[in-house]
C-alpha cells in the first residue's frame, strides 16, 4: 500500500488495513504468539480491574464486586482455558474413515479466518467485547474491536463510524446488541459474503412449575432478573405459572427483593440504574395498562426504577410486545406446562428458556418441545458461565455461538482435509468405468462401511481379514495391492493398541458366515507391511505381526501424555510437550526455585515474590517483587501521598514543592497575635480584620468619635467615653429630626395642588367619629395636605373636626382653613385676600340623581390674625398642640350636622370628600 493511499483513508479503513497487514505477516498463526497475546490480555484485565469496575459504577451504578463477579472473572477463566487447550483445539482433528479412505489421512484442520470485527454492547461491555476477542485471538485471527459508544463515546464514535467500519471487508463479524441493528450488520456483511455471528436478545420465558421448591425458584429468578437492573440479555423476561401460584410467587419474589436490595433499593449499593433517560422513558411507557404488584417507584433524574413485579399480565399488554431489558417482571398465568409450551412456541425463539421444576421428565419434555438459544433448568443465567457450553441464540435471538472451544471453532475455518497417495489403483478401480455389478458391490462395502477406530476389537479385525483375504484371492496378486491391504489392516491393529472402549461386535457383513481360518490369519500376519505412520515419515517395515510392538515405540504414533494432562500427541513431540507445555509437568521457577505443575506455574508467573521487577510507579527502581510492596508504600519517590494540610494526593517528590504553596498550610500572624488555625489562604483576611493587635476605629465613628486604638483596647475606650458618645448621639438625633422635618415638608410640597383647589378624602369616617364620641374629653382635628392658592401663591391647609368643635362639638362636622408659612410669602399681598369656598361632596350616582353638594363661601376677614403674614416656624406649635393664635384657622364650626350628613350620600364607602376652592379672581381689596 503506498503511503499516500494510506493517508487518504478514513480512520476506520486505516484500522482494518493495519489489522489485515498484520494478519498477512502470518505472525498470528503461531500458537506461541497467540498464547502470549492471550496472556497479555489476561494481565491487562487483572491490572485494570479497579478502573474497569469504576467505569461500570459510573455507567450502571454497578457495585464494586459486581463487575469482577459477572464479567472479568469469566474472561480470566476463558483465557486460562484457551491457553491450556489451544494446542489441542488447533491440532488436526482426525475424523472417522470409511473403507474407501482407510489408508488416507482424513482430518479437519482449524485455520484462522483473517480479520474479525467485534461489535459490543453496553450492558456487559467487557464480557461481550473481550469474550469474542479471546476466541478470535485463540483462533489466530487479527481483530478490530468496536465497543458500545454508550461507554466510550469519544474514543470510538457512534453509528456513523460503525457504519463506515462495516463498509470494510472482514472475514468475520461478531456483533452483540439488538436485532434491528443485527439486520443492518448482516446486510453490510452480505456485500462481502462475510460470515456473521449475531448475539441478540429477546423475551426469555421462565416457567415455574407447580411441582417445585418455590422459595428457591423465586430466589434464583429474583437474582437473574434484577441483576444489572434487568439489563441482561438472558434475564428472565417474564414468568409463566398457574393462576393458583401467582400470589405465592409474588410474595416469595418480594421477600427476595428485600433480602437482596433492602427496603430501600435507592440506597443499596448492589442495585444499579438504567443506562440513560431514553431507556428510562421506554421502560416507564411499558408499564402502561399493567397492574403493579410490587415496586414501581422511579426517579427520572437518577435513572432509577425499583424492582417491579406486574401481576395478571395479558399476552397483548405493552410489556409483552418487546424485550423488556429492565427491572420489570410480568407474571402471566397459564393452565400448566402444555399451555406454557404452546405460549413459548407461538413466539419468536428466545435467547434463553428457564424451567423450574422437580420433575425431570417435564424438564426433558419442555426442552424437547421448544427451541431457544440456551436452556437452564432450576436456575437463571448460569449457563453463561459454563465454558464448555456454546453460548448464542437461535432464530430471532441470533446465530453462531462462543465460549471456550466454541468461540475458537466459530472464529476458525474448519477445513476438511483428505490426503491420498497416488497408489492403490486396484482398490480405486471399483469407481472407474466400465461399471459392473461386482464393482458396485465392493463400492457399497467400501463406501458405506465406516470404521469406528475407537471400538473395533479383535473379532472385527479377524472378520475383516477374512474379507480382505477374499479380495486378495480375487484381485491381481500384485505386491502393491498386498502392501496397501496390509497397511489398511495395520490401521485397525494399531488403533486397537489404544482402544479403551468395549468391543463393538456389530460388524456388518454379507450374509455369509464367518469361519476362523488360522492358516489364513498366520499368512496375513506374516505379510510385509510399512508402519501405519509411513506417510508421516516412519521408515519402519516388517511383518504385520510385529506392528503392535513397533507402535509401542513408534515416534509417529499418537500417545496420551503420561502426566494425564489429557493431551494426545505424536510420541516424538512428547519430550517437548512434557518439558514446555504440559499443564501437569513439574518445573522450577527460575526466581524462587519452587517446584510447580505447568498449570500452577502459569498462575505463579507474574506473582513470584523472588522475581526482579520494575517499580509500577515507574520510578525506575528494580527489585524483587517481595519488597515491591514496602518500596511502593514507603520508599518510592513516585508513590502517592496525601498532603497533610489540604488532603489532596501528590507524588512524593512533588509534595514538598506543593506544601510551599498549599493554601491550607499553617501560618503565623506577622503581628504575633498568637491566634491559632491561620492558614496561607486566610492570613491576609486575618491581618486586615481578625488580628487582635490591629489598630481599629471607635465603633461610634459614624457619630463623630475620632478615637483609634488596638482592637484589644476598644472595650476600655467604650467604658471611658460613655458621656462623649451619648452627646454625640443626641446631636445625631437632633440633626436627623430636622432633616426629617425638611423631608416631610418637601414631600408635602410635591404632593399638594397648586391651582387653588383641594380635594380631600377622609377615610374611615365612622370609626374616627365613633372614636371621638367615646372619648370623655378632647376632640379630633384632622389636617389636609398643604396646597397652594396658585403657582407661587399662598400655602394653605384645611382641617376638619368629624365630631365638631366649639358650637358644633358633638353634633356637627366643623371645617376650617389656615394659612401656613410659605416659600413665596415675601412676594405676596397681605392679609390673605381671596374668597374661600368649602364643599362637602354628595357622592350619589350623578346618572341617577343630581348631586346636592353642601357649599359655604366666605370672604376672609382682613383683621383675622391667621390671614396676616405668618411667622416662619409657626406650624410646629399647632401640630404640637399648643395653640398659637396666629395659627387659628377660619371656617365653620357647624358646617353640616351629623343628621344632615345621613340624608344623602355624603358618606359613602365610609369616606367623605371635602373640597376647598380659593377664588383668586375675586380678590378682596385691602382698604
Ligand atoms: N446475546 C448476547 O450475548 C447479548 C449480550 C448483550 C446484549 N444483548 C442484546 O443487546 C440489546 C441491548 O444492546 P443495544 O443494542 O441497546 O446496545 P448498543 O446500543 O450498545 O448497540 C450495540 C452495538 O451496535 C452498534 N450500533 C448501534 N446502532 C448501529 C447502527 N445503526 N449501525 C451499526 N452499528 C450500530 C453500537 O455502536 C454498539 O456497538 C438487547 O436486546 C440485549 O438482549 C445480547
Ligand atoms: C459468574 C456468575 C455467578 C454468573 C454469570 C451470569 C451473568 C451475569 C451472565 C450475564 C452474561 C451476559 C454477558 C449477558 C448479556 O447481556
Automatic annotation (TrEMBL):
EC number: 1.2.1.3, 1.2.1.94
SUPFAM superfamilies: ALDH-like (SSF53720), TRAF domain-like (SSF49599)
Membrane topology label: Single-pass membrane protein
Organism in which the protein naturally occurs: Labeo rohita
Quaternary organization: Homodimer.
TRAF-type domain span: 549-602, 604-656, 658-714
Species lineage: Eukaryota, Metazoa, Chordata, Craniata, Vertebrata
PROSITE patterns associated with the record: ALDEHYDE_DEHYDR_CYS, ALDEHYDE_DEHYDR_GLU, MATH, ZF_TRAF
Protein name per its UniProtKB record: Aldehyde dehydrogenase family 3 member A2
Entry GO terms, CC: endoplasmic reticulum membrane
